[in-house]
Design brief:
Aspartate Aminotransferase, domain 1; 14 helices; histidinol-phosphate transaminase activity; alpha/beta; four-stranded antiparallel sheet; 2 domains; Aspartate Aminotransferase, domain 2; binds 4'-deoxy-4'-aminopyridoxal-5'-phosphate; seven-stranded mixed sheet
């Protein structure tokens, strides 16, 4: 303990659940429904699966350290240059890389009160000071975040939509905010759930990178693209920032399978549309349930719904588990009265609803 960096000593490990098979064994239940990690309930795309089978033949070779083909695909699809892209082993890897490249222990890092857990982890791991700004109606209070900027601020994390609240900032609000952030403060706009947002409401974030050289936009293949288990993410930034990130990045941080899978997933529009449609339907199913039962929820732009269940949220989580449904307590996000439920297939959502009704909710 004493040997660890001071920031590290204050950290608690990321709360990962037990493997499903282990839980099934312990509880004596088959087919546990997991609605806990905002994964894609469709399973992997068949096109990706076929490409992976081919890729298996090349696993004795190192992956392409530059991820040339994936960057080429992303550049074309998103209208950016290849030298603006930095790839990561999931977007978590990219978030950490950004912190390690630009932040040191004399700096402050700003994020919102109910922010994604990885932001405090990557901040404190390098000994920087985390500044959590109180939320406004569960979402980012951009004015308060601007007011929190000091001489020591180096980085601001914003997730849009936010996890675990599902709140969303309009393009206008974000653009206004970016105009007011000083040039020497980097802004990480984490758009992990952006594919679930109606196209007309999304920010032109990649175009903003040209207007705001201090902006980094992060994306992942773990959600709408269904590659959570493979770990694939990236950030688009000014080329000078990407150059610095690529100096720090481990050369083989994306493996051959995740590179190939991401290339194919990016072109699989049919799968993406299906993911979005299944999410929309499932969201409606859960929202209807909440409204029928008089449960408050935070309207969500993501692939999850965070529901206010009361002071016994942790206990309800345990009771749902006993019923074979895993959801996510969000106590660690300063939401002690809520549970976050990922959107599943219709039958999985129904299993959650049935368990709730059975438990008298
Ligand atoms: N950002 C946010 C806001 C997230 O919710 C998540 C996933 N939980 C990530 C990033 C990380 O995604 P990845 O699997 O790409 O590391």
């Amino acid at each position: 303990e004493q040997l660890a960096n001071p920031g590290v000593r204050q950290l608690r490990p990321y709360q990962a659940g037990k493997p499903i098979t282990e839980l099934e064994r312990e509880l004596g239940i088959k087919n546990i429904v997991k609605l806990a990690s905002n994964e894609n309930p469709l399973g992997i795309s068949q096109k990706v699966k076929a490409a992976l089978a081919e890729e298996l033949n090349d696993l004795a070779r190192y992956p392409d350290a530059n991820g040339f083909y994936l960057k080429e695909k992303i550049a074309k699809k998103q209208g950016v240059e290849m030298n603006q892209i930095t790839l990561g082993n999931g977007s978590n890897d990219v978030l950490e890389l950004i912190a390690r490249t630009f932040v040191n222990d004399s700096h402050e890092v700003i994020f919102s009160q109910h922010a994604f857990v990885v932001y405090p982890i990557v901040t404190q791991a390098i000994g920087a000071t985390a500044v959590a700004v109180p939320a406004k109606q569960y979402g980012h209070d951009l004015d308060a975040m601007l007011a929190a900027i000091s001489d020591k601020t180096r980085l601001i994390f914003i997730a849009n939509p936010n996890n675990p609240t599902g709140t969303f900032l309009s393009a206008e609000a974000l653009h206004d905010f970016l105009k007011q952030v000083p040039d020497n403060v980097l802004v990480v706009l984490d758009e992990a759930y952006t594919e679930f947002v109606p196209v007309a409401e999304r920010s032109p974030s990649f175009a903003w990178v040209t207007e705001f050289p201090n902006l980094l936009v992060c994306r992942t293949f773990a959600k709408a693209y269904g590659l959570a288990g493979l770990r694939a993410g990236y950030t688009v930034s000014d080329a000078r920032i990407a150059d610095l990130l690529n100096r720090v990045r481990q050369p083989f941080n994306m493996n051959s399978l995740s590179l190939r899978a991401a290339e194919v997933a990016l072109d699989d529009d049919e799968y993406l549309q299906q993911s979005v449609a299944i999410n929309q339907a499932g969201m409606q199913q859960l929202v209807n349930f909440c409204e029928q039962r008089g449960l408050s929820y935070i309207p969500s732009y993501g692939n999850f719904l965070t529901i206010e269940v009361g002071d016994d949220a942790e206990q309800l989580y345990q009771e749902l588990l006993q019923q074979g449904v895993i959801v996510r307590p969000v106590t660690g996000y300063q939401l002690p009265r809520h549970l976050r439920v990922s959107i599943g297939l219709p039958a999985e959502n129904q299993a959650f609803i049935d368990a709730m009704v059975k438990l008298g909710r």
